[in-house]
Batch of 3 targets.
Target 1
Amino acid sequence: MTVLILYATTEGQTRKIAGRAGDHLKLNGKEVEVIQISGANGLDLSRFERVILMASVHAGRYQPEFLAYVTLHKAQMDKVPNAFLSVSLSAASTDPEDLEGIAACVAKMTAETEWSPEIVVHVAGAFRFAQYDFLKSWAMRWIAAKRDPTASTKADTEYTDWEALYGFLDNWAA
Ligand SMILES: Cc1cc2nc3c(=O)[nH]c(=O)nc-3n(C[C@H](O)[C@H](O)[C@H](O)COP(=O)(O)O)c2cc1C
């Protein structure tokens, strides 16, 4: 089985998630291609038996290149079993308002692109203070103080639950 993983990222956590997901599937005998979505135009999706798309939430929205890609390629994606992994900080929360917020991000994406993924999985991302410019750093300090006062504002703080991710992949690709 050949699996395609397409990802969009801003600070790099989704690239890490895509890479680790690819490595896990390979260890389990799958052939995998991991490609950043900005370089995926012209890719023949019919070569793949399954497709995973990944993008991360920034101010309630996914990366524009992800939205553009699914808008353009939704007909081809609908022919292949597919899943969408939405990466966000809210996915690490148990607050119903946070969880409603990320469900609303997916609903907005579906309404805008008219692409409905077969499966949606919410994956917790990370604070990556080393990647933030001054303004982002200022905003993210405020968010960290509210969400996780123990989070370092100097090093990365990762919330991604790798075992949950691998568990999903094992079921989905079985
Ligand atoms: C400027 C900015 C805005 C963000 N907005 C949201 C948001 O609205 N909701 C949320 O749950 N997470 C939000 N996040 C958290 C990101 O989704 C999280 O850091 C994720 O790991 C980023 O993935 P990436 O490194 O692949 O871009 C935001 C992060 C940044 C830097």
Target 2
Amino acid sequence: MTKNNNAKNENSLLYLNGINKSFPGVQALSNAKLSLSAGSVTALIGENGAGKSTIVKILTGIYQPDSGEIFFNGSSVKFYSAVDALKIGITAIHQETVLFDELTVAENIFLGNAPINKFGMIDLGKQSKKALEILQSINADIEPNMLLRDLGIASRHLVAIARALSVDTKVVIMDEPTAALSFKEIQEIFTLIKQLKKQGKAILFISHKFDEIFHIADHFTVFRDGEFIADGNMADASQDKLVSLMVGRSVDQIFPKRKPKLGRKIFSVSEFSHPTEFADINFTLREGEILGFYGLVGAGRSELMQAIFGITRAHTGQLTIEGDPVYVTAPSKAVKEGIVYVPEDRGTQGTIKPIPIYQNITLPSLAAVSKAGFLQEVEEFQLSREYTQKLDLRAASLDTKVENLSGGNQQKIVIAKWLATKPRIIILDEPTKGVDIGSKAAVHEFMGNLAANGLAVIMVSSEIPEILGMSDRIIVMRDGKIVSEHKKNSVTPEILIKHAAGLMEP
Ligand SMILES: Nc1ncnc2c1ncn2[C@@H]1O[C@H](COP(=O)(O)OP(=O)(O)OP(=O)(O)O)[C@@H](O)[C@H]1O
Ligand SMILES: [Mg+2]
């Protein structure tokens, strides 16, 4: 074996070189390299589809590279399965985490690695106790014997992290660990990363959020279109420089200038209450308006939107469209009334992964693309092409199965699919979560165009710049209630945070 004499190799705990990986129609990685050092955090950045998750899967033995080498502690290693990578001490928290709904939290944490008693059976008591210890070490207030199914997105993420920490690891990989988390939980993840760093672990951190990258990373590596572009120290980097390395051009991050043309009052929600999730919700919405809903994770925003869309029904109160009462007892009814909802959890709620892009997009609009009950493929393709182009989707073709798209591109499919139904009211729940900085601008511009064309838009977002940059009016929710309402330009980030956190009386 000839060793690559790149200087990086000397200090690196883990070093990948010349990695190629292709899928039918896509070169996901070409001649990619990456180096991780003990006791430091490396941020891997790149646009949606740049190959970040693919290299994580190669590092964890889920995919085998077509060619290229992996060095661990200076010697060449090969992973034939996920177990090989785990044995060496590489663990990952994946972007789409595989956890099991019907198992308990403790069972999920120790799956395949459970403590065994002297009878050769899983030692349930010890398993719960050890699970609790790990959960407490990351400040996760989760009961180990709960069923996973009963946890929200943020808690599930913490379970995935606990799972990664249940084995003795040397390398910890986090693929967008903060995407679903609230401010407080993100701080806890950072505390955890700092602890891991002190223990001498090498950490790979993937995120689309630059504030996080600048806060936590020591080094950066940039991928573009599957290729290594640059690496260096964060101390020498600026956001502008990193963005232009990622995108290959400079990106205008200013929110689109909009002159809202508010039309008729189209939608109203009154005395809307749910036994546990929200209460006394009253608001109205006009055509051409973007109404932002801000709040901390758990404030009840998503639950409210899901009730409006007819996903949940245990509520009282009244919805009207153009003054007429509407009874939305199921999502199909909502779509018929012209209301659509793009969910936050686009992984499980959003798409049917094993079928092609174009079929996913046309699914809720079948009437528009059928003739006498027969699907028209040409129309299906046209409709899909129109919306995927608008959203800057990166895919080999519209025949590609959704499961083979990168995380961010899967999210664009969900947005496209609901827009293709030509709604009058669209509810976007965290519309740019997991979307890279270049496409983010495309989504924002697109959202502005929707409003300009008379659509009424509700945007739930936990990102203050997005809330302030896009909304004509902002409603803040806390503990299931509306606590304040603000006009555009009449509010600061501090005020929003204080209302959301209950530090300011309305
Ligand atoms: N199993 C697969 N089959 C076919 N194509 C795939 C598969 N996995 C990934 N790809 C393709 O490889 C490319 C890289 O995808 P990858 O998931 O690594 O991107 P990413 O950088 O993680 O993006 P994101 O920021 O959106 O998560 C994409 O074009 C994707 O569609
Ligand atoms: Mg990814």
Target 3
Amino acid sequence: MQIRRISIYEDFQCTGAACPVSCCRGWRVPIDEEMYKKYLTEKGIFGTVLRCLIEKKDDIVSFRNTVRGCPFWGTDRLCSLQKKSGTQYMPLVCVQFPRQLCNFGFFCEETLYLACPEAARLFLKAAAGNQPFVFHVTEGEVRYEVNTTNDDEEFLRYLLQARTELIQMLDDGISFDSMAFLQYGRDAQNACLSRTPLPSPLYYNDKNRYIFDCTMMNQLFFNGFYHPSLKTLSPFLYRLCRKYIKSFCGLNRRSPDAANRRLAALEAVFRQKIPDSDKLLNQYYAYYLQTSFLDIFEDYSFSKHLLFGIAKANMLWVFIALYAEKRSFVTTEELARIIAVYERRAPQLEDALKHITA
Ligand code: SF4
């Protein structure tokens, strides 16, 4: 099997107890079918403990969250399940995280989720050093299964080429929020529906930016991203969310114009406090494309995926700016932490996209 690995992949090393936001903080830990069966048949007190700590909600089996998150997360900031029984008793997601392993049948791609602060730090380091996010190709065996139902190799090869061209556009100076990406997405999606030839992203060069105003931002924020339970699940992100609410919620209700002026002032903070801020957002979008654009292979939703990346990058700078506002500078470690906690919650934005239009 051809394995394509993102350039920062091999540099990753878990920082263990020194990690500021350990893997299981801020979300439910799903348990895969194979491990679930193992837990159900495990004998003795250990088996009873495991079964007591499992819950099933909306067809997803996971560990019950305590106020501290995963019940196996110890006071030493390490996983007690791993310490006691090794990785063979850990859910697959815990063993793999933050590695994102995608088997498309024809080849595999291995990348890192930025929801891990160490992965986010590697991303920031590469972005600051102008190192492009490229795939290194090797051959080998993989033990993870094909995770797509599509077998249209021609379409997959088209997506690979389109992704390269989209990243080329970013390299050529088109901003991550340019309308060119959305126009390409709309036309590609229509071409899929009408079974006409798919366009090349390079035909598109509209430099007008997608307008992301405060009303849209609130739609995304309040339709899934924010939840009061973040107070215990992800206290650091919760504090940023409270700042967000204080800054924009009431103000936007009273005067959308005033809220948009506050947003513009915050954007100025972001540009002032974060070196090469435009480049950082473009690199963030490029990384998003490298890790998520091939999701279109499964659902053909060009528009949704391209807009999601733009919305995600926009919300990210808002959170960074809220953090930076009262500080004279922000370190790489602080930025990595913001990115990591934000990424854990960002999938919720995808559902909220239906409330805004491209
Ligand atoms: S989030 Fe990343 S660095 Fe932190 S404990 Fe998990 S794998 Fe290690």
